[in-house]
């Protein structure tokens, strides 16, 4: 059997992919030849233009489909509207920080719905398509917080631990099929959202950019360097390749050593 890293002829659906990590993953999958479906809940002209630009840049079919990942019916409709779904990347997520006794119930419900339950709905809808195609990859974007914890992030940590466990179950249920399911656990990734926080942190702590990054933002990341969205995308592309055909049920850390501590 010839080994290939090309994803030509495959269709990838990436939830929460109009910015940040999701967009980085979509771009790298397109670079590898996959047709891509971008998703968010905003449905703006910019969203559709972004998909068109990716298609033009990489010579693939790229579409945008609006779906609210807090709603199970929307999650399943996204997969149905995509038509094919050879690669599913469950990336959509939100965050809120508060102590357990003060954590707003509505925020807890939203985080669990978007960060965890959405992956159940999209995966349940995608697996029949993958089985019909005779090949599939499910990749769930978890977090270093899927393997460890931090205070004041109860809902996020619970959801990300749940994603890691869910990935293992799907892997076991598809173990004898040409379908794999893994979770990727990033530490701090340099996204536009993170980048925008650096100037305020510089003022708050009276530090240089480099000091803020190393001493404040990356205090728990031993490499003292951000992962990049391109690295996240490359990890996903590898998991989709023939080289990773026997990697399933695994949580892959891309965290600069965070979970090695």
From TrEMBL:
<comment type="similarity">
    <text>Belongs to the short-chain dehydrogenases/reductases (SDR) family.</text>
</comment>
<dbReference type="GO" id="GO:0032787">
    <property type="term" value="P:monocarboxylic acid metabolic process"/>
</dbReference>
<dbReference type="GO" id="GO:0003858">
    <property type="term" value="F:3-hydroxybutyrate dehydrogenase activity"/>
</dbReference>
<dbReference type="InterPro" id="IPR011294">
    <property type="entry name" value="3-OHbutyrate_DH"/>
</dbReference>
<keyword id="KW-0560">Oxidoreductase</keyword>
<protein>
    <submittedName>
        <fullName>3-hydroxybutyrate dehydrogenase</fullName>
        <ecNumber>1.1.1.30</ecNumber>
    </submittedName>
</protein>
<dbReference type="InterPro" id="IPR002347">
    <property type="entry name" value="SDR_fam"/>
</dbReference>
<dbReference type="Pfam" id="PF00106">
    <property type="entry name" value="adh_short"/>
</dbReference>
<dbReference type="InterPro" id="IPR036291">
    <property type="entry name" value="NAD(P)-bd_dom_sf"/>
</dbReference>
<dbReference type="InterPro" id="IPR020904">
    <property type="entry name" value="Sc_DH/Rdtase_CS"/>
</dbReference>
<dbReference type="InterPro" id="IPR050259">
    <property type="entry name" value="SDR"/>
</dbReference>
């Amino acid at each position: 059997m010839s080994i290939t890293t090309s994803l030509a002829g495959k269709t990838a659906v990436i939830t929460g992919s109009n910015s940040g990590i999701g967009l980085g993953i979509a771009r790298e999958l397109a670079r590898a030849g996959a047709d891509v479906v971008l998703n968010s809940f905003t449905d703006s002209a910019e969203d559709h233009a972004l998909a068109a630009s990716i298609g033009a840049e990489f010579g693939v079919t790229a579409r945008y489909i609006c779906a609210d990942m807090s709603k199970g019916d929307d999650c399943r409709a996204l997969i149905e509207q995509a038509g094919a779904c050879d690669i599913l990347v469950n990336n959509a997520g939100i965050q809120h920080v508060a102590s357990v006794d003060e954590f707003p119930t509505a925020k807890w419900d939203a985080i669990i719905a978007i960060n965890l339950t959405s992956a159940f709905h999209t995966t349940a809808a995608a697996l029949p398509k993958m089985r019909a195609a005779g090949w599939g990859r499910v990749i769930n974007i978890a977090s270093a917080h899927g393997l460890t914890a931090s205070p004041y992030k109860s809902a996020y940590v619970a959801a990300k631990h749940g994603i890691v466990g869910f990935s293992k179950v799907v892997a076991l249920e598809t173990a004898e099929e040409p379908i794999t399911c893994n979770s990727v656990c990033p530490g701090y990734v340099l996204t536009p959202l993170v980048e925008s926080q650096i100037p305020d942190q510089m003022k708050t702590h009276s530090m240089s950019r480099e000091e803020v990054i190393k001493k404040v933002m990356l205090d728990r990341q031993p490499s003292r360097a951000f992962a990049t969205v391109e690295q996240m995308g490359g990890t996903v592309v590898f998991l989709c390749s023939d080289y990773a055909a026997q990697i399933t049920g695994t949580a892959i850390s891309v965290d600069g050593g965070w979970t090695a501590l």
